[in-house]
């Protein structure tokens, strides 16, 4: 694999894959050290019932939806779920839209707030967050099934959906561990430091190099700005579907 192809792959990993790995194992709290904490502990009910029950979607689909952030609830055939879909004419016909244990918090590129992804069987629920100013009333908008993505969608508006909007309500059984994305970045930085120290030491003491010649793979690093620009253009063109005159290094 050429140096330019390697760099393109690396940039793709950082721009596309890494943001999706910012996942919290806590259904109540999402901690993104660079921005703050989103704590939904105070939004969900704790008595086993949903904070929002039998909500009609924006576009009527003959179903009603119930949702409770943070903690599970039970409604009809939906047992210990995060969200439930029922027929409007018969609440006994109910389907789970995901459990609290299935929750994944993800931050997509270009988005400020995370989204909550719940899964169960063949159904996936995506809850988008909307930050309300202090004093605003918590609100849930149900969009129902997206015919294009085949995902069930909701929007939760709350002061607690803001970064550091409701700090201090952290549940006792939550995890304070580092997210997968944070661990990946730490490993990447440590590997980079080891790489430079090892090669600089080898070039200086073994090869008796001096000046810029002690840098590892000096030719590559000198060409890095050009490679970076070419790699970013290549990724943008791939995403937008535009043609590109990108050519690999021979």
Automatic annotation (TrEMBL):
InterPro entries: Autophagy-rel_prot_27, Man6P_isomerase_rcpt-bd_dom_sf. The chain crosses the membrane at residues 183-202. It is found in: Preautophagosomal structure membrane. One of its GO terms (biological process) is protein transport. Residues 1-24 form the signal peptide. GO terms for cellular component: Golgi membrane; phagophore assembly site membrane; trans-Golgi network. This is Autophagy-related protein 27. It comes from Rotaria socialis.
């Amino acid at each position: 694999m050429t140096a330019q192809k390697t760099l393109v792959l690396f940039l793709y990993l950082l721009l596309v894959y890494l943001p999706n790995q910012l996942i919290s194992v806590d259904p109540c709290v999402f901690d993104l050290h660079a921005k703050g904490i989103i704590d939904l502990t105070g939004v969900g009910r704790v008595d086993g019932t949903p904070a929002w029950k039998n909500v009609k979607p924006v576009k009527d689909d003959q179903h009603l939806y119930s949702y409770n952030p943070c903690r599970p609830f039970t409604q009809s055939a939906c047992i210990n779920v995060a969200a439930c879909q029922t027929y409007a004419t018969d609440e006994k016909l109910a389907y789970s839209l995901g459990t609290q244990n299935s929750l994944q918090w993800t931050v997509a590129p270009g988005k400020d707030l995370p989204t909550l992804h719940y899964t169960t069987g063949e159904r996936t629920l995506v809850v988008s967050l909307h930050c309300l100013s202090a004093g605003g009333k918590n609100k849930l908008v149900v969009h129902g099934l997206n015919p294009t993505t085949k995902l069930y969608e909701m929007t939760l508006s709350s002061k607690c959906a803001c970064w550091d909007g409701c700090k201090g309500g952290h549940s006792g059984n939550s995890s304070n561990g580092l997210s997968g994305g944070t661990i990946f970045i730490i490993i990447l930085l440590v590997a980079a430091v080891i790489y430079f120290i090892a090669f600089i030491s080898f070039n200086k003491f073994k090869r008796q190099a001096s000046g810029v010649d002690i840098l590892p793979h000096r030719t590559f690093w000198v060409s890095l700005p050009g490679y970076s620009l070419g790699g970013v253009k290549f990724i943008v063109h791939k995403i937008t579907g535009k043609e590109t005159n990108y050519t690999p290094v021979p």
